[in-house]
Known about the structure:
- By secondary structure, this protein is mainly beta.
- Among the domains are: 66-135 and 725-754, no CATH class; 428-718, 7 Propeller (Methylamine Dehydrogenase, Chain H), CATH 2.130.10.10.
- 8% of the residues lie in helices and 42% in strands.
- The protein contains 6 helices and 56 strands.
- α3 (108-121) packs antiparallel against α5.
- The longest helix is centred in the N-terminal third of the chain and has 17 residues, at 87-103.
- It is globular, with a radius of gyration of 28 Å.
- It starts with 57 loop residues before the first helix and ends in an 11-residue tail after the last helix.
- Residues 1-84 and 423-428 have low confidence and may be disordered.
Amino acid sequence: MAGRNSGADSAVFPMPWWPYQRMVPQDTAPNGGGLPQERQVSARRPAGRRRWTVVALGTSLALLALIGAVIIGDSPADTPERAPGTADTRALSRRLAAESRKIAATDIRLARRLAATAWHLARTDEARVSLLNAFLHPERAVLAGRTGAVTGLDFGNDGVYLAAVDENGMVRVWNATSGEPLEVYADHGPALAVSAPGPSYLFTVGSDGSERERTRDGFLFTSNPYPRPLRAAAISPDGLHVATAGEDGFVDIWHKGGGYPGVTSLVHPRPVTDLDFSLNGGYLATASEDGTARLWDADSGELLAVTGGRRKATAVAAAPGGSLLATADGRTVHLWDGRSGKRIAALKGHTGRVADLAFSPDGELLATGGNDRTVRIWDVHLRKSITTLKGHRKPVRRVVFDPDGYRLASGDAAGTIRIWDTLTGYTIKKLTGQTRPVRTVGFKPDGTRLAVAGDDRTVHIWDVHSDELFEKPDVIRTGHAGRITDVAYSPDGEHLATGSDDRTVRLWDVYSRKATATLKGHTKPVRTVAYSPDGKRLASAGDDRTVRIWDVSSGKSIATLTGHTKRVSVVSFTADGSRIVTGGADRTVRIWDVSSGRPVATLTGHTKRVTGLSVSADGSRLATAGDDGTVRIWDPATGRTLRTFTGRTKGVTGIALNRDGSLLAVAGADDRVRLWDVPTGELLTTLSGHTGRITDIAFSGDGYLATGSEDRTARLWHMRFPPVAQVCQMASGSLSEHEWARYLPDIPYRQVCR
């Protein structure tokens, strides 16, 4: 049920950051289809639970980057020393924050340095919001200084280094994290491909058939192993093999260093326009002027699939494991089944010719760059564009993901290279399996499990942290005679409660998946259920206008609360368990004393039915939402309205507060989730991905947001944010002395980022 208390499940996001780990949706196409198992590749993941993300992609992409920055100062080890909060320093903090927001669109690095300095001076609301907004920008770095169109890009295997080559033979290497230029080589002819597998090694292939191997200690080996001018070339991810193609339609796969090719004479009837190895190097995709793309076994040369096409294919990319192919012809990108060669989808959105394609390492995303000077990120499962990255002033020629999929590099015809964070705002996991609309989601208190239920009368329990590619949920077939309207975990995580249209509440043992009790007493459908903090009582409410309190151990009703004049939609216990908060179709929010069953207060203000309710874990904030399109923040102690959010969301279907009440998630009837900064009332970001009305929303205790929808899916969104140290790193350090003197002439210079 939308609007259940999420306080007990909410995080204090000690240093939040976005999806630090991406998990592959269950409906990901099986790698390789009918191809040999040993050729299939799992998505690459960081060890354990290490960092998964994203400053972010586009407007909906980077937006959560610092959403929890209100508490950035909660970890002393990661935050600058707090300056005295005098009137002067607070005024300076606000001024720098305003300047940071003003220049964010033109100089994001300086904007970040100013925001960090503003926060250092005084932790004002304005400083916190400037931090948020500085990191909403999807662009992490702009690597300029080149003179020719970029023809090849490659991240090192550890993601630290980025190498690029251009049409004039210039080779450059950067630290991809800091943007610091490391090496420049101008002694190469026109280059087609580059590989930078390690910090001390660089490998390039030229259009003249030459090959250069270079080490950081000065060793240079040059050869001409490929006996003809090349039109296209690709280097395998491990740097050990090279695929080359000329004007004759022949493709050869060579062992690095030339000599005899490992595989020879893969044939297209017309010239080859592009080549791409799969992530493990086991497959090679080729595109041709004949309009086809072909998938080959890179070891044997066996032709595995041929796609159709009527127009010249200008770019090709192979998904991990060869399960998908992507091709471009003109402004359209086509997705193909890697086993059958049948077209799956046509992706349209670019307004100019698409020049390059790249799959993320987990195969979930496809990046495309084109002559319209934009980079688009596509969800291959939804088959839609997630975001458009703008900033290039010339046509984009190359795009490439880093080994973990956290960043995307793009290079244009002017030689400018941009690095983007790719994960903020993305669904990291789409949970499928429900056969009918999802009505409710609920986290286990420790955040490790998510229960999803709805109209098909089943409960699917998902392992939130699972790294399995094709994980399956535990399924409870409840036996309810009507749809499940709400689900709630007990505080110890060992039991579940489900409410249903069949007028009953059922209690379940999570491990055995067996019912332990059926609670009867409601005379109309149950809409909402909630456990008390000690787990001894359960509250339920519904269309019969009553709220019932149950003894969990005996299954008996111990109190019935009456007063609402229409159905009760939402219920929640306060953090100390002494009170119950309810909201309903009579437009009121009511607070009840649990021990006496008597009403304590009635909160009015909503002009239509109350549809959502959330109490922060510390009990300091109460959020309510209604069909009137407003969200109200209340002081539950006084009943006073602290803030009202209006005008952005119509038909609110669910809300959730994080633990300290600083972050508010609002689900609307427009299939989107909006995230608000409660202290300032600013809209931080909008999350999209569902294709049906969102029915429920909840925070977990370890950095996740869950949403359920009538599109029969639930989605997980990661919401962890960076410590100040990382913020400073992405800002390329502190203000310089010159910058400090410009903005703070009367204050002695200090290194804010240490």
